Fold this sequence. Notes:
Layout (H helix, E strand, L loop, with lengths): L12 E4 L5 H11 L7 H9 L3 E7 L5 E9 L5 E9 L8 H15 L4 E7 L3 H9 L3 E6 L9 E7 L7 E2 L13 H13 L7 H11 L13 H10 L2 E7 L13 H21 L3 E3 L4 H9 L3 E7 L1 H4 L4 E9 L3 E5 L11 H4 L2 E4 H7 L9 E8 L3
Parallel strand pairs: 4-5, 9-10
Antiparallel strand pairs: 1-2, 2-3, 3-4, 5-7, 6-7, 8-12, 9-15, 11-12, 11-15, 12-13, 13-14
Amino acid sequence: METESSRAPSELAIRAATVDDLPALVQLEASAFDADRISRRSMRHLLQRAHAAVLVAVDADGAVLGSVVLLFSRGTATVRLYSIAVHPAARGRGVARRLVEAAEAEAWRRERAWVRLEIRRDNTASIGLFESLGYRRFGSYDDYYADHMEALRYEKAVDAGLRPELARVPYYRQTLDFTCGPAALLMAFSALDPAFRPDRTLELRVWREATTVFMTSGHGGCGPYGLALAAWRRGWEVELHLSAEGAQLLESVRSPEKKEVMALVQADMEREVAEAGIPVRFGRVSPDSLEHRAGDGAVPLVLISSWAIYGTRVPHWVVVTGFDEHFVYVHDPFIDEEEGETPADSINMPIGRAQFERMARYGRRGLQAALFIGPHRHA
């Protein structure tokens, strides 16, 4: 992409693409890129899916000169600028700049406050464009593109007033569908001890220790008492906050026998927690209470219902990494690759405070659970 220094022609218009634009969009991909093109099938899917938007720049004759593709994270305030393409004949005329500005406006219209994207390290024109528009580099991916080129990661707050205080929490991706709790715990350990190195063996070991959920089919997940014990046994300070006493996460199963197993396992863990002297507090878990404890140096792990983000009614653990006036920021150990997500979509995900409070509960009883992990007890 050439430098976008000049203004786009006044007759240029930006509008939402439709399926009727599919042939022109496929032709644009072929003209704009030598590799890593969006296929016809994928482009049709993007045009028809609810959590994506495709905008096109057209001239006075209706010819498509450029496009931008946005992917919206369900339940969060982040949008990913997935692709931007400009026809070679239209480069240097400000088309890309107009498309990015329109993409930011669309993000804000859909109540998204952050835009993120990846850029090839050798694409100096795009790097210059996005940096001139206020995008900040915050990381990179090795071997990201088909030719093994590195990708630079950029982000921008659509509202320039957003200045979150974010903790330095190294990201760790869960390697199995049922290990979100252990993965979140390993992230907390990494944040508190720079020398700590998470790995899959430890992830699975923690899962074996902490599992309390007996799923209808497949493997079970981890409850708050099990995760608290797993952290305590490794020497970390732990505090457990719950909205109410009693057996938890029973909505995950239908079988009375399996519910009985879950209740017995949790009761045994509760006895171990009491014997270890792990503090357990009962009451509402709110963004304000999380922010207060995080301000004391603890790393919060919070149980959420993944329905708002992934459309599945399962309990899910995330790590809270920061706060500002409008949002709670989290590391989500799960990456939804079927929806085109990358780790950038799961790192420091902004979630509106009111939305987070609704999300941070599970089941008909509205269970709320949070773990606060502190420094090693011997430190």
